[in-house]
Amino acid sequence: MKRKSLGRGLDALIPSSEKKTESQVINIDIHNIFPGNHQPRKDFNDQKLNDLVSSVKNNGIIQPILLKHNDSDGTYTIIAGERRWRAATAAGLKSVPAIIKDIADKDLMELALIENIQRQDLNPIEEAEAYKHLMDEHSLTQDSLAERVGKERSTVANYLRLLKLNDKIKCYLLDGRISMGHARVLCGINEEPLQISLADMTVEDLLSVRQLEQIAAGGLTKQKKAKPHSSPSTPSPEILDVEDRLRKSLATKVKLLHNNKSNHGRITIEYYSLDELDRLIDILTK
Fold first, then answer.
1. Is-catalytic flag, 82?
2. CA dihedral for 33, 37, 41, 42, sign (positive or negative)
3. Considering the domain boundaries, does residue 231 fall inside one?
């Protein structure tokens, strides 16, 4: 199957006459810019924001933010780039580079969602909630939504299923203690107590997705044989310190999972482009 191009929905949202000028970047007074209530991103990690503030102080805003001009009062509403705007404000900048888009209010969230997906700025739950909001707001089917945001229908369906997970499991996903692969397996379990028990087991024993699939396949029979699992403890200050040192050294998000019983663990290092992967390989292989 031919892979869909992310952002095909952008063509439907932006008139052709605007596309000719949309690349024009202008500096906008930071005090005339305000966040919008359509923003799909809800979680602004303090540490990551502080890192961005430091970067902005040294290098300025490299990637322009996207704004909509409000004719009524001359202000601007953020379509995408709220984190960059927050960092610029904290860094004391007087203005930020921006691209102005003339777009209907009803389409703001769709464009914001597409831009955030392209920049990989949303966590899985935010993306799922944004999909749900768009479906409800525009009476879209999963097929039509997938077409508009440039995703496969199965991908959209998998994200929407996350919203049915127990809040505790959602927190595990947001904290990076389970992956999207783990979450998809847990979504296939109808009994919430079993779902939570297997999520706890995954975090406590650092189960791989394959191991979780094998245990989940046994259903309640496996659950009866397994020992009760208490809720996994939060990472110790020592683990958090190691994560912080690695993050600063590698200049990217790092997650360290450690099993106190076996003293085994797993380090997850994130990258967002092939160039960044090459940079990390150079650092790690020196």
1. yes
2. positive
3. no
Higher-pLDDT residue of 149, 193: 193
Measured between alpha carbons, how far is residue 142 from residues 62, 175, 211, 221, 223 in Å?
35, 27, 30, 35, 34
pLDDT of residue 5: 44
Catalytic residue among 22, 82, 137, 204: 82
Report residue 76: phi and psi, to 5°.
-130, 140
Q: Does residue 226 register a pLDDT over 50?
A: no
Hey, is 1 helix, strand or coil? coil
Count of domains for the chain: 3
pTM to 2 decimals? 0.53
Q: Please report whether residue 105 resides in a domain.
A: yes
Domain residue limits at 266? 237-284
Q: How far is residue 133's CA from residue 140's CA, in Å, rounded to a whole number?
A: 10
| Token couple for 192 | 């919430």
* CA triple 198-121-158, angle to 5 deg: 40
User: Do 40 and 52 fall within a single domain?
Assistant: yes
The beta strand positions in 21-74, using DSSP E, are 26-29, 33-34, 65-69
| Contacts for 180 with CB less than 8 Å, ≥ 6 apart | 124, 158, 173
pLDDT of 168:
92
Single-letter residue type at 256:
L
- Kindly report, residue by residue over 257-278, the tens digit of the pLDDT: 777 666 777 788 887 777 778 8
